[in-house]
Amino acid sequence: MKNPHDPERIPIVVVGAGQAGLSVGYHLSRRGLAFQILDAGDRIGASWRSRWDSLRLFTPARYDGLDGMPFPAPPHSFPTKDQMADYLERYAERFNLPVRHGVAVTRLTRSGDEYLVEAGDRSFLAAHVVVAMANYQKPRVPSWARELGSSIVQLHSRDYRCPAQLRPGDVLLVGAGNSGSEIAMELARAGHHVWMSGRDTGHVPFRMNGLAARLFLARLVFRVVFHRLLTVDTPMGRKARQVILSQGGPLIRVRPRDLAAAGVTRVPRTAGVRDGQPLLDDGRALDVANVIFCSGFEPSCSWIDLPVFEPGGEPVQRRGVVADQPGLYFVGRQFLYAMSSTMIHGVGRDAAHVAGVIAARVAERAAAVPGSPRPAPAAVQSTTNSFAPTDVDERCGSAPSATW
Ligand SMILES: Cc1cc2nc3c(=O)[nH]c(=O)nc-3n(C[C@H](O)[C@H](O)[C@H](O)COP(=O)(O)OP(=O)(O)OC[C@H]3O[C@@H](n4cnc5c(N)ncnc54)[C@H](O)[C@@H]3O)c2cc1C
Known about the structure:
Number of domains: 2
Number of helices: 8
Bound molecules: flavin-adenine dinucleotide
Distance between the termini: 60 Å
CATH class of the largest domain: Alpha Beta
CATH topology of the largest domain: FAD/NAD(P)-binding domain
């Protein structure tokens, strides 16, 4: 008799139901493979919905659709984060992707030829496991944050929603990447004096909403440079990968001159705290009322109890396939294969590759072991959906900025 605590057998488990997991699901469905997507959250699109209120994607809508379903908005517009979340929900519905919500995977180990996927008191055995999620899972905050004076409001960019959360007075943004720059612009417009500390990681040298971008430059950057040139197959791409994984990527929409025009003051790295105030590398201590950490995220992979990570924390893989652990795959991570790997327009290529490898392995096994399941190609149609954006966050109550 089956014990209710026995692991459930699922041929292919996909962990994560964001754009990476849904893309993998789409490509597995197309190949007729049986799978389940497990997600810790209670709703698709949660990672987008939880981002700050005014966030608009920095990629125009024509680069915001996943394989099989274009993003339903004018191609040069910049969707809001809630429109993106709605789009992902429609995508899962449209392609009938099997998502189980509220299943946070707590441990992944090997069990004979299979993987044991544990999620609290539930467990699953699978021949193939795809870890499908970007690196942005757990906020990274410097250890000195706890020494900041108690009157200073401190937040990570993941918890920032709108200017109303802050105290009147100056704001220090720790980290000068895309999130830091976009938040800096919003706070400067809201009347704060903004200090932005951190290394300059370069920027796209044209206006993302300008005519040249619409005509050809956006395509050149996203589809040619980020997708085709900067891959691990080119020397330029391998070099870029090292820089991006250690220092972060270039600013896409906000340019240094936009920050300067908005009155944002660029300062060196924040090195620690002196008398409760943030201390810069050049020895200055800043008298600020607020500190926002735009210092990035940890991938939070401690639940993967397998020797697959190199010292820098990235899994050792080739186009998402882990050679040392047959049946284990990654999709969605920063620069997994290309600069575009973690972006909406680029994740589908990696997902298709991984799904293709899984399909070949399943077919090989079916040929070797009589009676084992064979994939049956399913008809997956493409379509364009219309959608209604959801309401904005109640706490801050501001409509998404229409500036971009
Ligand atoms: C602020 C910000 C703005 C961005 N803007 C753009 C943009 O404009 N254009 C663009 O192309 N890209 C953008 N990106 C990059 C990328 O598109 C997003 O980060 C996107 O959310 C990545 O999707 P994902 O599916 O890879 O990962 P996530 O969206 O992080 O989804 C991962 C999913 O996995 C689940 N999960 C995590 N751990 C577990 C576990 N142990 N068990 C079960 N489930 C788990 C989570 O609940 C979540 O649903 C942006 C990123 C950030 C941070």
